[in-house]
Amino acid sequence: MLITVTRSGGFAGGEQEREIDTAGRRDAPQWEELAHRAVASTPDGYHYRITVDGRTVDLQDPYLSEDQQRLVRGVLGEGS
After folding, report:
1. Kind and range of the H or E element at 34?
2. Among 35, 36, 53, 73, which is most buried by a count of CB atoms within 10 Å?
3. Which of 54, 55, 76, 73 is nearest to 64 (CA)?
4. In sequence order, which residues have a C-beta less than 8 Å from that of residue 70 and are 6 or more positions away?
């Protein structure tokens, strides 16, 4: 199993990507079980892409901050 994690943003705005190939690893069952649980724990919610003056962020329910929720509801015409 190939597991890839990408992290971007932060103060410097950089991106870091690493992967683990579990093939042939003695700890493969633990990595694979963890990966399956991590992916399965993502709820089936809405995905959002917000762009402000050329800066874009991708978000997913239920992980929006209160300000992000208010912006989404306001722009989509769903009240405040």
Report:
1. helix 28-40
2. 35
3. 73
4. 80
Q: Are 16 and 7 in contact (CB under 8 A)?
A: yes
Task: Give the integer Cα–Cα distance in Å for 51 and 23.
Answer: 39
74 membership: H or E segment, kind and range: helix 66-75
What is the average pLDDT across 17-40? 92
Residue 25 gets the label, from left (phi > 0), alpha (psi -120 to 50) or beta, of beta
Task: Pull the structure tokens for residue 74.
Answer: 């306001």
pTM of the model: 0.61
Element (H, E) at 70: helix 66-75
Q: Which residues have a Cβ under 8 Å from the Cβ of 57 and sit 6 or more positions away?
A: 49, 50
